[in-house]
Design a protein that fits this description.
heterodimer; A: 741 residues; alpha+beta; Rossmann fold; Immunoglobulin-like; nine-stranded mixed sheet; five-stranded mixed sheet; 31% strand; elongated; B: 342 residues; alpha/beta; 2 domains; seven-stranded mixed sheet; two-stranded antiparallel ribbon; 11 helices; 13 strands; 32% helix
């Protein structure tokens, strides 16, 4: 036992009690000492014996009295118990502690326990260590409680790529424990920046008092420095952005093994062949962070049955290039040395945390016409047995593939050579050309064109009462050379788009290259001889996708069941139709608009983000069942007919079900339409699960604290009371033995 | 060590010795490490040539010799007059001394009772072997002194000798006082066994004792030579050395029997005590602890060792016995090994 680790919470009280009670006990004992008379044959020998013993000890009768000795022991134990001794092997200097618990996907790795029979996730270990730390916080003593003093305070922040404060600063250990216990595993990637900002925001601010006016000085922390305790595996990509204050201490409690290799799926995409929509390809990207070469079986499971198995061998992870920055390079000498101090030679080879993972991939080709939900999972090669790796989250992904469907496109035009010739080359199911008059006639009859996408070339449908929102009947539109100015439901608010007439020449200077309709579209060389100036009201349902120096050039307008891509200028007055990008844009836009009508997108949402799904018009009683959940949540659709849920924290398949019509690709189960939305981790940095020995913050490099960074703040007073009771029993025994001759 | 809680005082021989013990004592006889000349013919061989049936030697006849001792067989063979010499058989004087101070009246079993029984056993052995037996009690209270009308009626052979004998004749109603010594002398023969028992039972231990004064009295009043056996705990505050010095010499074979109670060897006391000396009411305040007990026992051992060394220097024999030792074992075994009995 390290006696220096014992501290006393209420030592002044104990000192006071000791000053009164110990002399009192001795005095009482001296006063109360009564001797029994006893006749003996001779006192000759006794006197001599007593004289011998008393020769050098004036307090002889006190020293040799076991009863007094026991009473003093009992009293000492009681006084020590009053002093509330606590034992800890490491004391924290700060009065305020911030407990950051990483709950990201990599914390689900089952390597926290050395015992192979008791597999424990890193999050469980992190929570356990955090609970121990909470126990080690100093509590106010008896006297301090009476004077309203407080002990150490702590706050609990759980973070993956978003952070939430589970418990703000408190010294209530019960609350802290409950907050830590309530943290659940997430499959989202890691980002610590927000957590650090939250921690800073909750730290006390420095106050400036002048003329009785108290001012908070932002950016300067006040009060005692805070200790930030990070319970993580160190896989924090944005750690270098975290900048704790210089006076604050930062303790990194490393969880997990630095030797954990992992094989995981880092990307997946389902794509139908452009030429043959029935040919469906699944592209799977794999990653191996193990230094050794790994062979895995990749299984494609389509609607519950295995459709294909391929064996993939991935190279082992390699050392990064020599000029790479090694964040773990020189730990500062003032930092506590972690367990890596004596790692050398072969051991270093096994530390996989700073290796570049080996990558691999596999493509599955299947012939499927229908929409489907595919599961792709990794397995240890047949016959090798055992688990694939300790991190199962990225060994399984789900992906939706839309139905093999060709689109029907209708052009409402008074004659456009560019459009007809450009669309003629696309693999469409049907291309129908109608005049504006025919289109109006159909609209007047209350019907619409039987097409997935309607291209309106220089014309607009007459505003009708049933489409107040967008000024367009429900459907998908590509509008060229026209600007719909729909009235909003609220007459007071202006419409999302305002047509300001034709303008001068311009070039397209910026566009959203990631938008599905503009992907692979180069608009650099497009020159507009005549623009059409449009105002897009900020905050409306209209989004500018491309802009000239004069204003928006391509706009997306979505409202409820209506979605439109608007190219307001006359393409005839540009060189665009002569550019290849025009055909690509047309194809992408038709694909985008038409694909929107299919159930689910093939893009899987990122963990930790929200998922937005557009449901068919008339969907009611919308419910969501997340992966691993047993009870459904009820969702309310947004005005544009989409439902938004999230942020999604667990990988797996989210089931949306509603009453009402099903879109193509949706399932129908017991009179309810069902859409399955897969959510996958697909995060290459997160799939490297080997825990890091050091964490490089912006201002310092922090080594992992040793495993004995702290032990429980063990209260010793119950033991002292127990000792008291034991000594009382001994005293009772001794007393009885002494009095019964 | 502690005063005996309840004791039934012996009143007669049967209280002191059981018939079984007597049977074990019968074959024994007194011996002495020295040879003394007795007064009367006894059953004890003497160095003196005398009249017995046991042949010792021959010597030439000189005129004046008793012609009845001439060995006529030798005269017939050698034609010379030789006298047959026989070993003289003598009696031996046994003197038993008991310490009847209050400190003897302690222990479990009672030390004085043990002394009484030992003295009776030795006296019995002496009497039945036609030795002269004397018994002296130092200190104590003569319970019968007040009851006796004529305390000096047994003066003389086998009579009572007491320092208070004359005093009690004048003031018989005065309460019994501790006397330095009381003695009975010159008992001889089996018939006097009961007299000895009565004498031993007549004294109740109590009071203080000056061992030196008592020893002086014994030394002055004793007659002849013989074996003296002193029963005491030898816990005398004024020391035992002077008294023993007075008794040693003068031809006595002195044997000391130190009687200690088991409680004195291992005191069964605990707690905070005021120990009171039973004789002089001196007190010692003690808190019994293991070191104190250890110290006490060391002191006791040193005291006994010192006594033994003193005894050896003066050619006395010392035997330290516990009061729970069986009397016949002590007499028939331990004293026999010491050469007191044979």
């Amino acid at each position: 036992m390290n006696w220096s680790s014992i501290s006393f919470v209420s030592w002044p009280l104990a000192l006071g009690v000791a000053a009164v009670a110990v002399p009192a006990l001795i005095l009482l004992y001296l006063l109360k000492l009564r001797r029994r008379d006893m006749e003996i044959s001779t006192t000759l020998l006794w006197k001599k014996a007593v004289q011998d013993l008393q020769a050098n000890a004036p307090l002889q009768r006190l020293r040799k009295n076991i009863l007094l000795f026991l009473q003093l022991l009992v009293l000492a134990a009681l006084i020590f118990a009053l002093a509330e001794p606590v034992m800890k092997s490491a004391s924290f200097t700060g009065q305020k502690h911030v407990i950051l618990i990483d709950r990201s996907a990599s914390m689900a790795t089952l390597d926290a326990s050395d015992n192979p029979n008791r597999r424990e996730t890193r999050l469980e270990e992190a929570k356990r260590q955090a609970l121990v730390m909470v126990e080690s916080l100093r509590e106010p003593g008896l006297i301090a409680k009476a004077t309203n003093a407080i002990g150490d305070e702590a706050m609990v922040i759980a973070f993956d790529n978003v952070s939430d404060v589970r418990q703000s600063f408190t010294s209530d250990k019960q609350k802290l424990r409950a907050a830590i216990e309530s943290i659940t595993q997430s499959d989202a990637p890691t980002s610590m920046g927000e957590a650090m900002r939250l921690a800073k925001a909750h730290a006390p601010k420095r106050l400036h008092v002048e003329n009785n006016q108290t001012q908070v000085i932002e950016g300067l922390s006040g009060g005692a420095p805070i200790s930030i305790h990070l319970f993580s595996d160190g896989r924090v990509p944005d750690a270098d952005a975290a900048k704790p204050s210089p006076e604050d201490s930062f303790v990194f409690h490393r969880i997990g093994s630095e030797k954990s290799g992992n094989v995981g799926i880092t990307s997946v995409r389902a794509q139908r062949s452009y030429e043959n929509p029935n040919a469906l390809s699944f592209f799977v990207g794999l990653q191996n962070s193990d230094p050794a070469e790994r062979t895995v079986d990749v299984e494609l499971v389509v609607e519950g049955s295995v459709a294909a198995i391929k064996q993939v061998t991935m190279p082992g992870a390699t050392k990064p290039a020599a000029d790479g920055v090694n964040p773990a390079a020189p730990p500062k000498p003032d930092q506590p040395q972690g367990a890596n101090a004596d790692v050398s030679g072969d051991e270093q080879q096994r530390i996989t945390s700073d290796l570049n993972p080996g990558v691999g991939g596999v493509v599955f080709n299947v012939e499927r016409e229908d929409a489907l939900l595919a599961e792709i999972r990794l397995r240890a090669p047949t016959g090798s047995g055992g688990d694939l790796d300790a991190f199962p989250t990225d060994d399984r992904v789900y992906v939706n593939a839309g139905p093999a469907k060709r689109l029907r496109v209708a052009i409402v035009t008074s004659g456009s050579l560019f459009l007809s010739s450009a669309l003629a080359g696309l693999p469409l199911a049907e291309l129908k050309t109608v005049t504006p008059a025919e289109y109006k006639a159909l609209a007047d009859k209350g019907t619409t064109l039987p097409a997935d996408v309607i291209i309106l070339d220089g014309t607009l449908p007459a505003a009708s009462g049933n489409a107040p929102a967008a000024g367009l009947p429900p459907g998908r539109y590509l509008i060229l050379n026209a600007v719909p100015t729909p009235k909003t439901a609220n007459e007071q608010s202006p419409p999302p788009l305002t047509d300001k007439g034709k303008g001068g020449n311009a070039t397209i200077v910026d566009w959203q290259r990631t938008h599905p309709a503009l992907r692979n579209v180069g608009l650099d060389s497009v020159f507009l001889a005549e623009t059409r100036d449009v105002d897009v009201r900020p905050g409306s349902t209209a989004v500018t996708l491309a802009r000239t120096e004069r204003g928006p050039a391509i706009i997306e307008l979505s409202s409820g069941p209506t979605r439109a891509l608007i190219v307001p200028f006359d393409i005839g007055a540009t060189n665009w139709p002569l550019d290849v990008s025009f055909v690509v844009f047309l194809a992408s836009a038709i694909d985008y608009l038409g694909g929107e009508s299919l159930a689910g997108s093939t893009d899987t949402p990122q963990m930790g983000s929200t998922i937005s799904e557009r449901l068919p018009a008339g969907a009611t009683d919308i419910r969501l069942l997340g992966p691993g959940e047993t009870s459904e949540a009820t969702l309310t659709p947004l005005p544009d007919g989409s439902v938004v849920f999230g942020p999604v924290r667990r990988a797996g398949v989210y089931r949306l079900s509603w009453k009402g019509p099903a879109a193509p690709g949706d399932l129908t189960e017991s009179s309810r339409s069902v859409r399955r939305v897969p959510a996958n981790l697909l995060d290459a940095p997160e799939s490297v699960v080997a825990s890091k020995q050091t964490i490089a913050l912006a201002s310092r490099v922090v080594n992992a604290a040793g495993s004995d960074a702290f032990k429980g703040d063990q209260k010793l007073w119950p033991w002292l009371l127990l000792a008291c009771a034991a000594m009382l029993m001994v005293e009772w025994y001794v007393y009885n033995k002494k009095t019964h001759l | 060590m502690l005063r005996t809680s309840s004791i039934s005082r012996p009143t007669k021989l049967e209280d002191l010795l059981s018939s079984k013990e007597i049977a074990r004592l019968d074959p024994l006889d007194l011996a002495s490490r020295r040879v003394f000349f007795g007064k009367l013919k006894g059953e004890r061989r003497s160095k003196k040539r005398g009249h017995s049936v046991e042949f010792a030697d021959h010597r030439q006849y000189v005129s004046g010799d008793d012609i009845r001792h001439i060995d006529w067989n030798i005269f017939g063979r050698l034609d010379k007059l030789f006298l047959k010499l026989f070993l003289e058989e003598e009696d031996l004087s046994l003197h038993v001394v008991l310490d009847a101070s209050a400190s003897s009246d302690c222990g479990e079993p009672n030390k004085y009772l043990f002394m009484q029984r030992c003295a009776m056993a030795l006296g019995y052995v002496g009497l039945v072997n036609l030795n002269r037996v004397a018994a002296t009690v130092m200190g104590g209270i003569d319970a019968e002194a007040t009851a006796r009308n004529s305390p000096s009626q047994r003066e003389g052979a086998g009579g009572w000798v007491g320092s208070n004998a004359s005093a009690s004749s004048t003031s018989t109603s005065s309460p019994p006082k501790p006397s330095p010594i009381r003695a009975v002398r010159d008992l001889r023969g089996r018939r006097r066994v009961h007299d000895l028992a009565r004498f031993l039972c007549a004294t109740t231990p109590g009071g203080t004792l000056s061992f030196r004064a008592a020893a002086e009295r014994i030394a002055i009043s004793r007659r002849g030579k013989g074996v003296m056996i002193i029963f005491s705990d030898f816990f005398f505050k004024d020391g035992y050395e002077d008294g023993l010095r007075l008794l040693s010499g003068h031809g006595y074979d002195l044997i000391l029997v130190q009687v200690l109670s088991p409680q004195e060897l291992e005191p069964p006391i605990k707690g905070d005590l005021r120990l009171k000396d039973i004789e002089d009411a001196d007190t010692a305040e003690v808190t019994i602890s293991a070191p104190l007990l250890k110290r006490y026992q060391a002191n006791l051992a040193a005291y006994c060792t010192k006594l033994r060394e003193f005894a050896h220097r003066r050619d006395m024999a010392l035997l330290t016995v516990k009061s729970d030792t069986p009397v016949d074992l002590l007499v028939a075994d331990q004293l026999r090994r010491l050469g007191v009995l044979k």
